Amino acid sequence: MKFADLLPRGTPTAASFLSAAERADAAGKAASERLAGLTEQRLAALIADDDKGLDRLENAITAAQRERDRLEESAVELRRRHALTVEADRVAALDALHARGMTAQRRAVELIRDRYPRLAAPLAELGEELDRLEAEIATVNQELLKRGDRRTVAGIDDVARPAAQPLDRFAHGFTSTLFLPHPTDRVGTIYPPSKPSPAKAAA
Amino acid sequence: MELRDRLKEALDRERTATLDAAYERGTAAREKALKLIRGDYAKLAAKLTRLMQELRDLDQVVVAANAELERAADKRRVKEPDREARSQEGWPVQHLQKPIYQQIVLPSAENPIELLFPATDVYGSKLARAA
Lengths: 203, 131
What we know:
The structure holds 2 protein chains of 2 kinds.
Chain A: H1 3-6, H2 14-47, H3 51-146, H4 156-160, H5 174-177, E1 180-181, E2 189-191, H6 198-202
Antiparallel strand pairs in A: 1-2
Helix pairs in contact in A: 2-3
Chain B: H1 2-71, H2 81-85, H3 100-103, E1 106-107, E2 115-117
Antiparallel strand pairs in B: 1-2
């Protein structure tokens, strides 16, 4: 069996190289057994003074030795190529993994820098508008109280998010809960509005 | 006497009209706020919630990739997206950096106890919809 006959067909893979090495091992073992049989026959031919038989057997032994050596060497070469393919596969898998991580990172960065500000900015404006409306309601209620009018305007949370349980009344209000981090200054917020952090300003 | 009574009545009417106007102003402010929370906020916050979920998923891909690279003794690492996007490079003091999706708080538009994002109540307990 020639080395070329043992090589995997098509695109070689780690599995196909290993399978080819195992085929070479099996064929090499068979070649060794055949060689042992021929060697025994040669010894018998020596004792029998069979020179013609010896010529034939020695030719066959030479061919069998070459076949065994080729198969043993083929198995070694195929295992080497298997190991190289395994390593190449491992590196390719890690490259793909790293690339997947980098793709996820780039997408996330793009979302934080581009989409997040576009979605969060109107929410921050809405929060500030609610602050103004809450202040307006508080002023009106203060004025009514001061002038002895018993009416009060119910707060935004009492109407928009009425408490189902008495304890729910102790929860923070809508605008006290809303918290929108800044898209570039990790210490700052866009709601509640904050000044740029000193560290960011210094950078 | 008659003129004094009429003055008092006129002053009362003016006072009542001023208070009615103030009350109307307060009620209008509350109605506007209600519309903002139930309408604009609910729509924008839903979009922002989906964005935060996407950012969390992308972060998990990066964390998993880094864990796998470390296990394989590969020295490469993928920088955390939030640190890349909101870099502290050049800052005199480095701050603990939580990703945006761990910092943001979006209250529910209807329930004072529940949050829209993260999917917890205001005390930090996970909501059923988070499961």
